[in-house]
Amino acid sequence: MPDGTRKQVSTRQTDRNLAMQIALKLELASDVSSRGMMTRDTALKLVNEITAMSGVQVMDPVTCRNFLTSFFDGEHGWSSSTRRHYQQYCRDFLQFLGPRADMPLATIQPAQIAEWRDARLSDGLSMKSVKSSMIVIEVAFKEALDQRRIEKNPFEGIKRPTVRKREVKRPFTWDHFAALVKATEGDWRLCILIGGYTGQRQQDVAQLEWSQVDFERKCITFRRRKTHDELTVPMHSVLAAELAEAWIGAGRPPAGKVIPEVAALGETGARGFPAVFREQVLPKIGIVQPYAERSSGKRGRTVSEYSYHSLRHMLSTTLNAIGVSPETRMLVVGHSDKRVSAGYTHAQLADAEAAIQRLGGV
Question: Can you give the pTM of this predicted structure?
Answer without folding.
Answer: 0.58
